[in-house]
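debug: dumping io for the single-chain case to check the tokenizer round-trip. Nothing else runs in this session.
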Amino acid sequence: MPCRFQKSFIVSLATLAAFLAIQAPRALAQHGSQGTVTVTVLDASGSVVPGAQLELRDLATNDLRAADTQPNGTYTFVNLDIGRYQLSVRKGGFQTQIYGEVVVQAAQTTDIKANLKVAPLPRRLKLPAVLLHS
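debug: decoded output
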């Protein structure tokens, strides 16, 4: 009896070891070749900016991911291929911010804190009265 149990246990253990040996590199490759970018958008006073439009462009492939910041002013782009990206941050009433080189590294999170500046008001032209009444 003990011999059958030992053989069954050894076969089960060998099967498990073979399964893990095949699956482990795949799991590591999935996590090891991708990264994450977390963006937090703030205004000049340090308050969060919800609803800011984010565009993250892969500079190698030109692939584009777009999203809006959540009510807490953040958004996380996940499962990004390692490489260089360009991030643009837009929100009405603010100047657009562009980050030309955001580096995504394997199995790491790149944190970007975008500080938006208030957009300047459009200038009004003062025309001489002669031009206004001609």
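debug: round-trip ok. Residues 33-115 form a domain with the Immunoglobulin-like fold (CATH 2.60.40.10).
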